[in-house]
Amino acid sequence: EGRKRNQISVGSCSEVSLPGKVSDADIRSLNASIQAPSGLEEPCFLKRLPNGNIGISFTPREVGEHLVSVKKIGKHIANSPFKINVGEREVGDAKKVKVTGTALKEGKTHVDNTFTVDTRNAGYGGLSLSIEGPSKAEIQCKDNEDGTLNISYKPTEPGYYIVNLKFADHHVDGSPFTVKVAGEGSNRQREKIQRQREAVPITEVGSECKLTFKMPGITSFDLTATVTSPGGVTEDAEINEVEDGLYAVHFVPKELGVHTVSVKYKEIHIPGSPFQFTVGPLKDGGAHRVHAGGPGLERGEQGQPCEFNVWTREAGAGSLAISVEGPSKAEIDFKDRKDGSCYVSYVVSEPDSPYKLFISPAMGDAHKLEVFQFPDSGVQADKPAAFLVRKNGAKGELDAKIVSPSGTEDDCFIQSIDSDTYSVRFMPRENGIHNIHVKFNGVHIPGSPYRIKVGKEDADPAAVHATGNGLGDIKTGIKKGDLWPREEFGAVCDLGTDKYKLEPQPYGSHAVLLESGIKTDFLVDTCNAGAGTLAVTIDGPSKVSMDCTEVEEGYKVRYTPLVPGDYYISIKYNGYHIVGSPFKVTCTGEDLAERGAQETSSVVVETVQKVSKNKTLGPVLPLFKSDASKVTSKGMGLKKAYLQKQNMFTVHAGDAGNNILYVGVYGPKSPCEEVFIKHMGRNNYQVNYVVRDRGEYIVIVKWGEEHIPGSPFKVDV
Q1: Which pLDDT score, from 0 to 100, does residue 493 have?
Q2: What gap in Å lies between CA 467 and CA 102, rounded to an integer?
Q3: What's the rounded Cα separation, in Å, for the pair 18 and 77?
Q4: Which UniProt key words apply to this protein (predicted)?
Q5: Cα distance between residue 636 and residue 517, in whole Å
Q6: Nearest to 153 by CA among 144, 145, 164
Q7: Helix, strand, coil fractions of the chain, as percent rounded to 5
């Protein structure tokens, strides 16, 4: 509790050229994996080498002959798999890393404490450093380009720090180091509250569900909400204002499972949205299912309550702790809304240091300023846009900056139009949601930071789905020749024979794995979500080799965990978690690397718009739950019909669930003249049709894909 971590990784990989020419266009659609002599297989990266050949980069873990498979959409390219020999000197050996300097025994606050790491004789491997203690120490790393690195850390509080230093996934000698840091602290004050949270009663199909959030200072007119059921049906949900600034989304679910609730303000997801909402028993509770969002986590003003929401419904029962830390004491207030959400507000008496950007000094004249002609839509990357600010007589300095989704900041260009009006020009460099901070005498003006959507495509995180066995229970490095216990056969066979080839042994309790492949992968389906930035991060007890390749329906992510334990996989689209993210994945198996602190691996891809093959572009049909056998029909028009007259029958589908009524009439020479269906309410329909040829007709009545009892009907005209 109260300990803070920071970490940094420096890659160093062996690069090997592969024979044959492969063009640049191909390199994006290829993926590669390397299998070590022991059978362990991991993803590796393809890159263009300076001589124009294609090469792979990987971390050698074993001596001997390795096989590199390079595939395009699952098929080996020419000459694949390639053979590569790894010599003794190339395998990363943490024991041969030399560390010099006293900074791993003792350090001082507010200065850079430096030590040197020499990996010249240690082969290839990535270096990762994490430091944990009373403050989040700033880490800097300078590569001396000669196989040595200078690493420094700068803590702001005294006390004991733990430093993990790993090379090629193994601790170097002496790691983890305990460092005693002396010196002045920063007089930061910490205020903490703890509350026990009960589990919310289970919601059932057909009962009214509600999700509440507080968002002061907006008009409900600009709020919209939709709910997507597990079957993929998206419907609008109702939003109402419960009390000042507190809103509730209401919907009635028709099926069990995880629903997605999207709440948008002016077409942009509010902080916390898209929400996960489980109907029926919770699948997986726990801390990773707690969400928080609101203005009090972004900005604040001295002496005024800073407010935010915390949603714990999906996490189940537990103890919720909230602490606020800063240069002065904060008063924390907590309100439980009894529906799995609660509302926190804190008041700070003195402003924060200027670079922390959280608490600004008291308002002063800033409240007089107003913004107009703000571009709500149509803003594009790399094209300038502007808005106006009216000072209304306030005296002082105006400044503005734009913060992109990836976190880079850029100044806005401010010009005075007349004595009371400024024009603010800005140029976004990427697509996605940007924040524009407008300050007057160092204080945010009302409504700042302003959120603005850049780019025309609707990259909607709520439309992205991830599936695959890499999000379920996994094993560390499955290898060729592994024995599989009998009780797991079923699970293995369910995963499909293309993944595993098993040879059951005569003594019956095990099978031998004949061929290994990387089992831990998952698909991120971006088919209905436009183009955006996909960021996948895996946090766990070891670093993982991972890669991400484009496939037809989206992007496939592969990774190889080296240490058993819990891994948390976050998948974000344009900065927002997708449905179900973060995923908690439990890994079993043996240690293939040494444990250290939590380690983070990530990959970021700019996606292109995807259209799925089997679904044509356009609306997705909902998953109907219906029973055509419960539909009844009656009327003369199902037995006998007359020329040029309105022939009629009725269809009653009130007890048959939900679906679409299809009626077709086919004649001896040609289709019928006209068919007219009128819905009389409650799934009762009246059907009229007109024919102009004598003879035998066929009337087909279907409820969804299925014929109703009696259909097709034979009708004499």
Answers
A1: 43
A2: 48
A3: 12
A4: Repeat
A5: 64
A6: 164
A7: 10, 50, 45
| Eight-state DSSP code of residue 492 | H
Q: What is the DSSP letter of 267?
A: T
The number of residues making up the chain comes to: 717
Per-residue confidence (pLDDT) for residue 492, from 0 to 100: 45
- pLDDT tens digits, one per residue of 54-95: 777 777 888 888 888 888 777 888 777 888 888 888 888 889
CA distance 573 to 705: 36
Could you tell me how far CA 251 lies from the centroid of its own chain?
Answer: 24
Residue type, 260: T
Low-confidence ranges of the chain (pLDDT < 70): 1-2, 11-15, 18-28, 350-363, 456-458, 477-519, 611-621
- What Cα–Cα distance (Å) separates residue 462 from each residue in 19, 424, 458, 576? 43, 33, 11, 9
Q: What is the dihedral of CA 125, 131, 136, 139, to 10 degrees?
A: -40
Strands of 266-340, DSSP E: 268-269, 275-279, 291-293, 300-301, 306-311, 318-326, 330-336
Please report, to the nearest 10 degrees, the dihedral formed by the alpha carbons of residues 251, 283, 466, 598 taken in order: 130
- Look at residues 297, 230, 238, 289 and name the one whose alpha carbon lies nearest to residue 263: 238
Residue labelled with tokens 């028993």: 281
What residues have CB less than 8 Å from 572, skipping those under 6 apart?
461, 534, 535, 536, 537, 578, 581
Q: Which helix (H) or strand (E) holds 706?
A: strand 706-707
Rounded Cα gap, residues 228 and 236, in angstroms? 9
Q: Where does residue 59 rank: exposed (0-12), middle (13-18), buried (19+ CB within 10 A)?
A: buried
Those residues with Cβ within 8 angstroms of residue 546's Cβ, 6 or more apart along the chain or in another chain:
43, 536, 538, 557, 558, 559, 560, 601, 603
Residue recorded with tokens 């030399």: 98
Residue 102 phi/psi, 5° resolution?
Answer: -85, -5
Q: What is the pLDDT of residue 463?
A: 83
Torsion, CA 68, CA 70, CA 71, CA 75, rounded to 10: -60
d(C-alpha 1, C-alpha 700), whole Å: 69
Is residue 402 within 8 A of residue 410, CB to CB? The reply is yes
pLDDT for the residue 82: 83
Please report the pLDDT score of residue 686 as a whole number. 94
Distance of alpha carbon 258 from alpha carbon 90, whole angstroms:
48
Tokens matching residue 125 = 């491997």
SS (H, E, C) 501-566: EEEECCCCCEEEEEECCCCCEEEEECCCCCCCEEEEEEEECCCCEEEEEEECCEEEEEEECCCCEE
Q: What is the dihedral of CA 227, 230, 231, 235, to 10 degrees?
A: 0
C-alpha 542/C-alpha 230 separation (Å) is 33
Element (H, E) at 490: helix 489-494
Q: What angle do CA 488, 494, 500 make, to 5 degrees?
A: 75
Residue 117's alpha-carbon distances to 181, 492, 697, in angstroms, are 20, 44, 88
pLDDT of residue 154: 92
Residue 572's Cβ-count burial label (10 Å; 0-12, 13-18, 19+) is buried
Among candidates 519, 445, 449, which has minimal Cα distance to 482?
A: 519
Q: Which residues have a Cβ under 8 Å from the Cβ of 254 and sit 6 or more positions away? A: 205, 206, 229, 233, 625, 658
* 66, β-bridge pairs: 84
In Å, how far from its chain's centre is CA 225?
20
Peptide bond into 81 cis (omega under 30): yes
Q: Residue holding tokens 């005569």?
A: 506
